[in-house]
Amino acid sequence: MSQAINRGLARALEHDPKVMVMGQDVGTLGGVFRVTEGLQRRFGSDRIIDTTLAESGIIGTAIGLSLRGYRPVCEIQFDGFVYPAFNQIVSQVAKLRARTLGRLHAPVVIRIPAGGGIGAVEHHSESNEAYFAHTAGLRVVSCATPDDAYWMIQEAIASQDPVVFFEPKRLYWRKGTIGDRGGDRFAPTVVRTGEAVTIIAYGGALAVALAAAEELDAAGTRCEVIDLRSLAPIDYAPLFDSARKTGRVVIVHEAHTAGGLGGEIAARVSEECFYSLEAPVLRVGAYNLPYPPARLENEFLPDPARVVDAITRSLNW
Description:
Blueprint: H1 2-15, E1 19-23, H2 39-43, E2 48-50, H3 55-67, E3 71-75, H4 86-93, H5 96-99, E4 109-114, H6 129-133, E5 139-142, H7 146-158, E6 163-168, E7 189-192, E8 197-201, H8 205-217, E9 223-227, E10 230-232, H9 237-246, E11 249-256, H10 261-273, E12 282-286, H11 297-300, H12 304-315
Parallel strand pairs: 1-2, 1-3, 3-4, 4-6, 5-6, 8-9, 8-11, 11-12
Antiparallel strand pairs: 5-10, 7-9
Helix pairs in contact: 1-7, 3-4, 8-12
């Protein structure tokens, strides 16, 4: 996936001379996860810019660049480092188009390596997508395969809207092929068909959902798995169609269950599909605690066993 994002960035840089990449260590080092490796040698230091350690400065500068016609792609080194730039993102980037009645745009992409699964320390494994999905004016997306990562980063850069682009760290080393573009890569996609239960997941949690579905498939329970892809806005139509078909829905994400995006999805599905549901919509997420030390990470994050338990409870309702 890391190489897929790298190639997607390179293609966007080739296609549009106004595209630029900026962030801490993105140039000479190629990023902590080497996602931008080789780009500065290829496109120069005036387009692949090593910034100071100041997230608010990175996003603030990107706003100014976007007003001058550039398309800056900002890297936040780790998910928990984005908070110093929170005001710039939710108060400036997200509001610029509405504030100017569409006369100005902020086509800024904010790349955030997100989630756990790598045994990192505090502030390096957070799932903070709900903060941004709650903010009107932002597009929020998360990739789960190298194929999606390659195409989605290009769609994000081409968008006139600001995009917060979550990259699940645990998937950076996952291998896969890159195919044809194939339609809107921000739209939800059914990655596994089934009739018993609908599982909705995104980012790093998608692999967990698929593992649980495969385990239940061996027992004769066929689950449908949907990769959400876009977290804001959400295209609910495919989710409603699947919920009406199966009558049972389980939502899986790495973020805390309390206040997480799963609660909003559950509410909407319950409102629109009430008479089709055979059980309450259930959620599986992390516990409502600060992210623990690495040795407790596997206990903290949702795993296939917890997803299977939620599906079993739904089936037994």
